[in-house]
Automatic annotation (TrEMBL):
This is glycogen phosphorylase. Phosphorylase is an important allosteric enzyme in carbohydrate metabolism. Enzymes from different sources differ in their regulatory mechanisms and in their natural substrates. However, all known phosphorylases share catalytic and structural properties. Belongs to the glycogen phosphorylase family. PANTHER family: GLYCOGEN PHOSPHORYLASE. It is an enzyme of class 2 (transferase). Its cofactor is pyridoxal 5'-phosphate. The keyword Transferase applies.
């Protein structure tokens, strides 16, 4: 019999164990080992079975066991200590509190997904886990962040694999009452309701709140009786629907999210958010809601836009065009031709998302483009991705070089306390005197010997092998209820064999099946009698992506063949819980995307924090961190004729590395059985990568390089009743309308003769027509570098020319001559030009307006 309705009844704890409830109510338990130990003690097996979920545990444990613990003085004391520690953690000054008054008092962080704990499945992959790690690190650093997202009733999806290797999706319905969530309520106890006006009715949402350490996460949920039936499903699942469904989700996330943050601040007395950070373009509508607010305060659209841009940080996450949301323009038009955002003209909205540049489409509304127009502070997620993004969005800044496109980069990081195996942490505590594995002195070989490190690595591999066996058998039993799993499953994999891990979502560019390029060679590698290798693989394909599912199927078919099945497994339902055992348990973490499509990649970082070595294409983070000692680089066959050839070359290179370098080194043991060359690499990896790969480093960078400047710019614009915002809007308008008349009339040069030499000085004088602008509205620049065929410049440098005098005889008095000198610093080809760009100290870079006039 199936229930028609389901809910969770929370346990009533004995009074002197009330600390447990308080502790379970804050997700800090998910990364705080001492707290987990406290829960594990209640019922160790149940704790394992329930996959480390305190709320489920407290609901499932026998009341007699709770009564027993309530009588156990030692346990009660322990629980109270952990609770006091939590309270202290929530209150005490941390890093951010040392920054002084200029630091924003509140920052709102928006993301379509949040991966915080396996018990709260609200993520599909890297983007969500990164958001979760961002919140946790912000909490640890004391950054006053409040986060907004959606509560998806079915999360992403649960994955099973059919006997024929086909991905099967199911959508188990989550019960928020059984999760670490509570409803945000008005002072009188009624639930806060967020409402959006739609073309044909209203969309209502309730707000769930989760405590992530010091950070509050607000999740909007439309599955409430106040909504018409069809609108209850707006937040049904993550990335489930197309077009209109997705648009509704994003309207709710952006617009509803800002309203929720405001409601929360008003109710709790928290300061209003000063900086808004959107993790990927999906939440971009938040800027429109804020503009609408300011228009309500009396600003014009353009004035409000200046303020909102100044305080908005936009992080782009994908160089893959399919990863960017592009809506049907007519659809967006329909939704904004309503009272959804009072004071906003639908034309102004549409202009923000218009692809009005060469190669753009007139029929779409592009969320990334809007993100850049609404966010003055933009970044990619690794240095290489920053470069790729600057090229990708160059069209928005015509006349500027890609390197001038105002998109910076902050390389992702991962939250070490979440992703470091407790065994490695215990080693750091015992031998290095710290539980902070990112700052522990792993280089100290006296304190932590090779054998110690190796022994932990062995135990982590063993733990993974056990978990894999358990998962494979459990999956089999779910598909064959009542049957007994085949015997070979019980000794699948080998805890002593070199283990390569590969797990990620399965979009084509990640090339899940590259390893199958030459199946016979792979088979030889796996079954090598002296130096065997085993693979543990996992990953979900988007439900609509049959191509991805075929890749999974191909892999599962291979892994099911009788000779290799002991050496290669595909584990269904990749999630945080699996990942936490998978990264530490692998010796080598493999990543073979098509360069440069992996914006950053974070799984390899999590592996490295546990002493796994990376084997990866030089893409994303690996491109900036590979140093020859911390793993291996698979060369990219950029020059290959086509995709197939490229795959072939890169796969061969990968096999070669495994066969000739990785396996020999792994199996080269000293008399005590320790592979000393390998352990040297582990030690080096831990000592050099743990700190820079941590989310703590990442969040500090966001604070210092993006949040602080964003707050500063926004404050400057809002001061004195928005004086600077009004001025800036007016100035931009003036510059835009004058710009067609701005020109470099000509360029005179002197100082070098027919045979210029290094050290000579080139004097330049350029009369410039300013079209009515003042000299201080622009900067005239000498741009020079090595010149090449087609007059392209490389190694470009820029030097500002200074205004010398008004051009004699210019009636309008607006033409001026600019002069400057540059020393010829290198031999060989030299080229230069002169250009004019607008400047204003409220712009971050002159490229912002996309206006430039170049000498012709
Ligand atoms: C880290 C992580 C990812 C993202 O890994 P990438 O290397 O960025 O693809 C996806 N899923 C889970 C469960 C993770 O923990």
């Amino acid at each position: 019999m199936k229930a028609i309705r389901r809910f969770s009844v929370r346990a009533v704890l004995p009074e002197n164990l009330s600390a447990l409830e308080e502790i379970a109510g804050n997700l800090r338990w998910s990364w705080h080992e001492p707290t987990k130990e406290l829960f594990a003690r209640i019922a160790p097996e149940l704790w394992q079975q329930l996959r480390h979920d305190p709320i489920a545990l407290l609901g499932a444990v026998e009341p007699s066991r709770l009564a027993e613990l309530a009588d156990d003085h030692g346990y009660v004391e322990w629980a109270n200590r952990v609770r006091d520690d939590l309270r202290e953690y929530l209150q005490e000054p941390r890093w951010y509190q040392s920054l002084g008054d200029a630091a924003p008092r509140s920052i709102a962080y928006f993301s379509p997904e949040f991966g915080i704990a396996a018990a709260l499945p609200q993520y599909s992959g890297g983007l969500g886990i990164l958001a979760g790690d961002h919140l946790k690190a912000a909490s640890d650093l004391g950054v006053p962040l409040v986060a907004a997202g959606l509560f998806y009733r079915s999360g992403y999806f649960a994955q099973a694999i059919s006997p024929d290797g086909w991905q099967l999706e199911s959508y188990p319905v989550l019960d928020p009452d059984g999760l670490p969530l509570s409803v945000l309520r008005e002072a009188d106890g009624t639930p806060v309701q967020i409402t959006l006006a739609l073309p044909d009715g209203e969309l209502h949402a309730r707000v769930w709140q989760a405590a992530v350490g010091r950070v509050r996460l607000l999740l909007l949920d439309t599955d409430i009786p106040e909504n018409e039936e069809r609108l209850r499903s707006v937040t049904d699942r993550l990335y489930g629907g197309g077009g209109e469904h997705r648009l509704l989700q994003e309207l709710l996330l952006g617009i509803g999210g800002v309203r929720a943050v405001k409601a929360w601040a008003a109710l709790t007395g928290a300061p209003d958010a000063e900086v808004f950070h959107t993790n990927e373009g999906h939440a971009g509508f938040l800027g429109l809601e804020r503009i609408s607010d300011l228009v309500g305060e009396g600003l014009s659209f353009d004035q409000a836009l200046q303020v909102v841009r100044a305080g908005t940080v936009f992080t782009t996450h994908t160089p893959v065009p399919a990863g960017i949301d592009r809506f049907d323009r007519a659809l967006v038009e329909r939704y904004f031709s309503t009272s959804l955002l009072p004071g906003l003209d639908v034309k102004e909205v549409l202009a923000l998302g218009a692809e009005d540049y060469p190669g753009g489409s007139g029929d779409v509304f592009n969320m990334a483009v809007m993100g850049l127009r609404l966010g003055q502070h933009a970044n990619g997620v690794s240095q290489l991705h920053g470069e790729v993004s600057r090229q990708m969005f160059n069209g928005l800044y015509p006349g500027f070089d890609p390197r001038e496109v105002p998109i910076d980069s902050v390389t992702n990081g991962v939250h070490a306390p979440t992703w470091t195996d407790p065994m490695l942490r215990a080693l750091a505590i015992e031998r290095l005197g710290t539980d902070d594995t990112t700052h522990a002195n792993w280089a100290d070989a006296h304190a932590v010997g090779d054998a110690d490190l190796w022994s932990v690595r062995n135990r982590m591999r063993e733990q993974l092998v056990q978990d894999a066996r358990h998962r494979v058998a459990a999956a089999w039993e779910r598909q064959n209820p009542g049957g007994i799993a085949p015997a070979w499953m019980a000794d699948l994999l080998d805890p002593n064999v070199l283990t390569i891990g590969f797990a990620r979502r399965v979009p084509t560019y990640k090339r899940l099946t590259l390893m199958l390029h030459d199946p016979d060679r792979l088979r030889r590698i796996l079954l090598d009698p002296e130096r065997p290798v085993q693979f543990v693989i996992a990953g979900k394909s988007h439900p609509a992506d049959d191509e991805g599912k075929r890749l999974i199927q191909k892999l599962v078919h291979f892994a099911n063949e009788a000779d290799v099945r002991g050496r290669m497994v595909f584990l269904p339902d990749y999630d945080i819980g699996m990942a936490q055992l998978l990264y530490p348990g692998t010796d080598v973490w493999l990543n073979n995307p098509l360069r440069p499509l992996e914006a950053c990649g974070t799984s390899g970082m999590k592996a490295a924090l546990n002493g796994a070595l990376n084997l990866s294409i030089l893409d994303g983070w690996w491109n900036e961190f590979y140093d020859g000692e911390n793993g291996w680089a698979i060369p990219s066959a950029d020059a290959a004729g086509d995709g197939a050839e490229r795959d072939a070359l890169e796969a061969e290179a990968m096999y070669d590395l495994i066969e000739h370098q990785i396996a020999p080194r792994f199996y080269d043991r000293d008399p005590d059985g320790v592979p000393s060359a390998w352990v040297r690499q582990i030690r080096h990896t831990l000592a050099t990568l743990s700190s820079p790969l941590s989310a703590e480093r990442m969040v500090r960078e966001y604070v210092e390089r993006l949040y602080l400047p964003a707050a500063e710019y926004e404050n400057r614009l809002t001061a004195d009743d928005f004086a600077a915002a009004r001025g800036l809007a007016e100035w931009k308008e003036r510059v835009r309308s004058a710009w067609p008349d701005v020109a470099v009339a000509h360029v005179d040069a002197g100082g070098v003769d027919d045979t210029p030499q290094v050290g000579d000085e080139l004097h330049v004088r350029a009369p410039v027509r300013l079209g009515g602008l003042r000299p201080e509205d622009v900067r005239v620049e000498l741009v020079y570098g090595r010149s090449h065929e087609g007059d392209d410049l490389t190694d470009v440098a820029v030097q500002e020319l200074t205004v010398d005098r008004a051009v004699p005889g210019d009636e309008a008095g607006s033409a001026h001559e600019f002069v400057g000198t540059v020393r010829l610093a290198w031999a060989g080809s030299f080229g230069y030009t002169v250009r004019v760009v607008p400047v204003n100290d409220l712009l971050l870079t002159p490229a912002e307006l996309g206006l430039v006039a170049v000498a012709s």
